[in-house]
Amino acid sequence: MSEENSLIPNAASTLEISPTAVASWIHLPHAQRPRLIDCREAEELAICQIHGNEWIPLGDFPSTGPERCADASLGVVVYCHHGMRSLRAAMILRSRGIENAFSMAGGIDAWSRFIDPAVPRY
Question: Considering the entire predicted model, what is its pTM?
């Protein structure tokens, strides 16, 4: 199902992708980059988010996540606050056949610390 994409790591060797790797492609048009999905709760999304993301709360992943991510031929990167919930979300997607699903290591907190300090930390 997964086509070769140099923007994401080899799915056979890792479940995570670094914020630096995401930053290298986040400004590309949506049709040319992996999908970026925020799996945090609405209250957290209101505090901060990464521009260009889509929102699917973690609680929705078992029922609608795989369906909503089925067209992810360029890959899917999920993020949360610190990277634990997004690991779960990526594992759910992989267990449902979306092999090129990843979690952004360190979550939006790492994004704020290493990529964009203008993103509020909480």
Answer: 0.94
CA 65/CA 11 separation, integer angstroms: 18
What's 53's DSSP letter? -
Give me the half-sphere count of Cα atoms (radius 13 Å) on the Cβ side of residue 117: 0
Instruction: For residue range 41-64, list pLDDT tens digits in order.
Output: 999 999 999 999 999 999 999 999
Q: Are 75 and 101 in contact (CB under 8 A)?
A: yes
Using a pLDDT cut of 70, give the percent of the chain over it.
Answer: 97
CATH of residue 111's domain is: 3.40.250.10
* Residue 23 exposed, middle or buried by CB count within 10 Å (0-12, 13-18, 19+): middle
Structural domain includes residue 121: no
CA 105, 111, 113, 119 torsion-angle sign: negative
Provide the residue range defining the domain that includes 26: 16-58+77-115
Q: Domains in the chain: how many in total?
A: 1
Nearest to 110 by CA among 77, 82, 73: 82
